[in-house]
């Protein structure tokens, strides 16, 4: 009789566990795999285990006006995973349900189920307090706790159920089968939860390792700047590590890199045409066109195989959108959840790298600028030429020689002061003037300089060493190659809300690429952009053998409202 | 007295050197100019014994100018430079005379002494380039640098040496001999050079003479002596 009961109970238990297993495949199960103590987790525990509690009662076998059942599993586990409160609630609900079904053990069962839930809950508190919450998930622990709880239940039945004889008879019949079935069942149930937990952890581990791998492989690439080369490398890494159909990286205007399906018509360098991308940039928001609810259709080519896209903005400092990274899947494939989540992480990583890269570039720029200053301070050729000129002048025209020495010392004194960041245009012009006096003496019979700057511009602030290198360049690489009649014009005026400063020579030798002068010009341009913004800076234009013109554009508000007492800026040299 | 020409692009440097040379009492500065093209002209007309040649000059540097001089009529050269390290190394290696700016009086005296003593020719070949890429010419009121490869023909007459390209005719200070040696041009007449690739037709005339028509339609005479060489060159014999 006892053996028969054990087997019947275990049979019922199997059905019960199959249901538990199936449920473990649903998202409903996710919250209970951790002991977070959050309200949502507790609530899930309550609902889920109350259901199992009731299920256990229904699956029970009717014996002598009582029910041999697996209700204890739900109560104990509810308590173990949800804490004393949840355990009590599950036990109480399950107990009330049992009570409603009647029989001579109804009150006893209601009380015992509540107590069982409470035991589970107290064990939960015990483990959590000792920092051993991982013990909760061990099937053996659950087995033991349920075993104890079931024994307690038997005692409660003996104590509460009337008449005692009947109760004793019942307990002697069901005690062993119920204790075994419930303990083993609870242990197995927990092992299902544990499996689920392991799978989830493996999944997270795979996710993290992929994310880490992308991060590791992309380190340092952005230090070259946010451009086609660097983004191409990043896109390749993301493409290889995520296995999506295609990866694109754009800046605010155009595609910088595209790799994967459709790279025959999604070409780097072409402007952004997708509305989703525009929306991601303009609204600084993640746009996901899954190709189902939100249709995705390639804006470039009708026969494009790409069917869904995830567009994530790359956000720099001040919430400025620097560009986007786009992941695509072909029409026959769906986005995996890993990639959806990973995408955002990659975007964050990339944004940070771009910012770090920019910072590194600025550092490099600073060093270059310092280098240039250093070079300018000790320019041996200039000094040599100046001394030779003075040496040559001194015999014929001692007064002129004295003047030249004064200009030279003025020039060097100013150079020494150039560790300051900005100067006014007036100061820069004085510096140029000192420089030009020397050069004019050197090329006396074949160089003319004309300086014409509006007086109201004299107070504008410029980065140090902005105009002087341009004038130096115009002589060194421009007029010095002319046999005669070299002419340099320096102009400053306002135009369409901008201040324009122009240095022009009449040689027209400007070679757009090459030589160290190129570096000097680049530094001037970058320092202007750093100070005033990207739309400003230095541009070079030339007409071969006619003229070369260096044009600086800066905002009109670089002008300070201070007025000097009627300085005449129209200096003719 | 040593007849000297000073070539330097800086006015004050030029004047200073002329003064210093004058002070030695042994040099007669017969002229000065401020670039190499002018310099070539003055060398041809004034025939100085020595030139004081600056290296850093516009368009054609002093070293480049050296390659354009006819070795047969070449004056002695004293280089004057401020800092050109590369050139200084070459001068040291080949024991050429050079002066550093600013010029020291006693150093200049040594140079003059050596100039008076030294009679044998200096070999400038280490500084001289094998081929000339650009040929300086004077056109109407301007100076041209013509690419050697573009020249169709060059010829000499009483007024000088003339160079003809597709659309330009200009006069150069370089001799036909220098042009023959340092450009792809070949000799077809005592007074004519022709670019082999510019020949469209060679018309054989009586008495072993011939006439070349060039790609752009110029007629060039071929003398008996050079016709044979021309034929050999094209394997026509």
From TrEMBL, chain B:
Matching entries from NCBIfam families are given as: PRK11697.1
What keywords are assigned to this protein?
Answer: DNA-binding, Phosphoprotein, Transcription, Transcription regulation, Two-component regulatory system
Any one GO MF term held by the record is: DNA binding
Query: Which residues carry the post-translational modification 4-aspartylphosphate, per the record?
Result: 54
Spell out the PROSITE patterns in the cross-references: HTH_LYTTR, RESPONSE_REGULATORY
- Domain named HTH LytTR-type: which ranges? 135-236
Keyword DNA-binding in the entry? The reply is: yes
PANTHER family for the chain? STAGE 0 SPORULATION PROTEIN A HOMOLOG, TRANSCRIPTIONAL REGULATOR-RELATED
Q: Which Pfam families match?
A: LytTR, Response_reg
Q: What is this protein called?
A: Two-component system response regulator YehT
Span of the secretion signal? none
Q: Residue ranges of the Response regulatory domain?
A: 3-116
